[in-house]
Amino acid sequence: MSQRPTFAPSDPELVVERVSKWFPVEQGLFRKPRQLRAVDSVSLTVGQGETVGLVGESGCGKSTLGRTVLRLLDPTYGRLTFEGRDITNLGVSELRPLRRRMQIVFQDPYSSLNPRMTVRQIVGEAIQIHKLAKSDAQEEEMVLSLLDRVGLRKDALTRYPHEFSGGQRQRIGIARALAVMQDAKGGLLVCDEPISALDVSIQAQIVNLLQDLQEERGLAYLFISHDLKVVEYLSHRVAVMYLGRIVELASAKDLYEHRRHPYTRALLSAIPVPDPEKRRLRIVLSGDVPSPLDPPNGCAFHPRCPKAKPGLCDKDVPALRELDEGHTVACHLPEEDP
Ligand SMILES: Nc1ncnc2c1ncn2[C@@H]1O[C@H](COP(=O)(O)OP(=O)(O)OP(=O)(O)O)[C@@H](O)[C@H]1O
Ligand SMILES: [Mg+2]
Question: Whole domain around residue 277: which residue ranges?
Fold first, then answer.
């Protein structure tokens, strides 16, 4: 059966429309569970072969969004369209063939790789689940070519995850994701902090590998990271999340050079800038991120916002609106373009 995508060349890889993921939190025996709004009405597209970076403080819902768009979690509301097909309500068996075109790479490959399996088994298993090889010999050939592609030597085959360094383990994780996706061009890879657990010297190698793979295979990435420099370097567009919502979305260049949301300003002000001429004042936010169980009224950022206006920002939720072409911001009082 042909695995060629049936969606139009101009279609986006992924369309996320007002997607929410709420987790029920028990309150005790006789009380109704409350809803933790980990992701709240997020809309986003990822184009074919595009990298969309996703940034924001810890707990703002990045991983939940990443898992929900792949249907590893069920959305509470909203609609997901993957390669032209509505996947919002597909069951596990209907999703299985689509897994060949959408996969995830995790931050800590060690906890996501079975310690009792060899690399041959780990990567081979992915090929078996999706029945991609006709024989054991062909499967081994596929595993070997994947290992070679991600920069691991042949002798990795018979070794176990603990025998590898962090960077090598991440290569195994990438090989496993690609094992499933190898039958077609394109597809979507959610990278959930794929380099955070690695030494700085190794990070660049993995970033380069991801970039090469994108070029070769036309992969689209949803790239989640705390490393704002790497996100700027890798992403075509960047979305900034705060408490379950996207507050700013623009091309990487626009977002980093013309920061319009006060939260984006604060977040990005932490990036070290070597050139003193270009240095900006570091903005330190007061207070912690509020709980998504009990989000503030109005703009969720208003209790920490240096510009918040009483009667406006604590009342109405700001909608995402386009301030410049392709640059959307959810703020009642966006910063002037510097
Ligand atoms: N299975 C779950 N049940 C209940 N709450 C959850 C669950 N998973 C995540 N949460 C909550 O949802 C919110 C968003 O979590 P998430 O892990 O998506 O954030 P994140 O942006 O990925 O954070 P980090 O940068 O630390 O990885 C947090 O308040 C978290 O505690
Ligand atoms: Mg996370």
Answer: 14-101+184-329
* Cα of 58 from ligand 2 centre, angstroms: 7
Pocket of ligand 1 (CB under 6 A): 23, 36, 38, 56, 58-64, 292
* Average pLDDT along the chain, 338 residues, taken 10 residues at a time: 56 96 90 93 96 95 97 98 96 92 84 90 90 91 92 94 90 90 83 88 89 92 95 96 97 95 93 73 81 94 94 95 95 86
The residue whose CB lies within 8 Å of the most ligand 1 atoms, and thus the one to mutate among 20, 22, 26, 63, is 63
CATH number for the domain harbouring residue 74:
3.40.50.300
My answer on whether 195 and 71 are in the same domain is: yes
Last residue of a domain, one of 156, 183, 210: 183
Long-range Cβ pairs for the range 106-110 (8 Å, 24+): 106/173, 106/192, 106/193, 106/194, 107/192, 107/193, 107/194, 107/196, 107/197, 108/197, 109/161, 109/166, 109/169, 109/170, 109/172, 109/173, 110/161, 110/162, 110/166, 110/169
pTM of the model as a whole: 0.92
Give the distance (Å) from ligand 1 centre to CA of residue 63.
7
Within a domain: 3: no
